[in-house]
């Protein structure tokens, strides 16, 4: 049975983290969040976002394609939400933005909240100012965001990267000693088509693929980089056997996403079998 794990500053009662987008603002009723080592909120942006037009989710034979579009209440409403919020476990707030200033402002505004244990910088979300590229597309953009964020908070920072982040080796090497952990990875670009209409199923046409289809790709990177870096695995951890493989590959903790959506009691299985 999996016990407590330590990243750097952050200690979790077990290595399982409910990933952003699958547990609301760490207030989902259907998932027993108190059993997780940590829970990551929906990504918070400066201003509220309505998200993409529906449909937003489609199942595929080995995964789930989502196109939520970072729908969230925005920073000010989230601060009000925290006033009466009782966290179920270690609380990690996911932060998104379109510039280093956006990230720095959000973490600075939330830095004084004692119930927040850490931040996860979502550097794999689309940036509308640069034509849909991920925010953390390369070493320079990632570094600018991290420099601004580290100056704005005393809390641990986890950094969630895209599988297509350029200069990944350089990013990991330079920032390893300065951040709490790297989360590898977010979803992979994907879409599906309705065979009857011939039209894309998702309202936004394309989205991100999660689920078992992507785990061998993520596992490869975890195995490659875990000896020198503090890594949290994220991608396709939908069975207990897959979870065991990521731990064997060197992941310190595991973010569970699609597994929670398919089975809200999946954490019970993980705690018993991994």
Summarize the structure.
This protein has 274 residues and is α/β, with parallel strands linked by helices. It contains eight helices and 16 strands. It comes from Coprothermobacter proteolyticus (strain ATCC 35245 / DSM 5265 / OCM 4 / BT).
Question: What does this 3D model show about the protein?
Answer:
With 274 residues, this protein is an alpha/beta fold. The protein has a single domain (5-273), classed as TIM Barrel, CATH 3.20.20.70. Helices cover 27% and strands 22% of the residues. It contains 8 helices and 16 strands. It has helices at 75-83, 100-110, 139-150, 168-175, 215-225, 240-248, 258-262, 266-273; strands at 5-6, 11-12, 16-18, 38-40, 57-60, 63-66, 90-95, 118-122, 126-127, 133-134, 157-161, 181-184, 188-191, 206-210, 231-234, 253-256. The strands form 4 sheets. An 8-stranded parallel barrel has the order 3-4-7-8-11-12-15-16. Helix 5 runs parallel beside helix 6. The radius of gyration is 17 Å and the shape is globular. The termini are close together. The model has no long low-confidence stretch (mean pLDDT 95).
């Amino acid at each position: 049975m999996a016990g407590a794990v330590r990243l750097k500053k952050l200690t979790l009662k077990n290595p399982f983290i409910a990933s952003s987008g699958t547990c609301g603002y760490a207030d989902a009723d259907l998932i027993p969040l108190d059993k997780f080592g940590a829970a990551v909120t929906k990504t918070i942006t400066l201003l509220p976002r309505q998200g993409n037009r529906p449909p937003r989710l489609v199942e595929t034979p080995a995964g789930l394609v989502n196109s939520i579009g970072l729908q969230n209440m925005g920073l000010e409403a989230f601060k009000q939400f925290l006033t009466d919020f009782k966290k179920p476990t270690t609380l990690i707030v996911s932060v998104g933005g379109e510039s280093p200033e956006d990230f720095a402002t959000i973490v600075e505004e939330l830095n004084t909240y004692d119930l927040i244990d850490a931040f996860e910088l979502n550097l794999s979300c689309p940036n509308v100012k640069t034509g849909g590229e991920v925010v953390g597309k390369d070493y320079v953009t990632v570094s600018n965001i991290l420099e601004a964020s580290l100056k704005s908070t005393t809390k641990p920072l986890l950094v969630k990267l895209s599988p297509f982040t350029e200069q990944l080796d350089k990013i990991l090497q330079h920032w390893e000693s300065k951040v709490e952990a790297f989360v590898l990875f977010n979803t992979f670009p994907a879409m599906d088509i309705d065979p009857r209409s011939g039209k894309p199923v998702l309202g936004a046409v394309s989205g991100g693929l999660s689920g078992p289809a992507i785990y061998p790709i993520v596992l490869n990177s975890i195995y490659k980089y875990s000896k020198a870096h503090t890594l949290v695995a994220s991608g396709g951890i939908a069975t207990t056997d897959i979870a065991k493989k990521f731990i064997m590959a060197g992941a310190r903790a595991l973010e569970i996403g699609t597994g929670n959506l398919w089975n809200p009691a999946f954490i019970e299985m993980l705690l018993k079998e991994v």
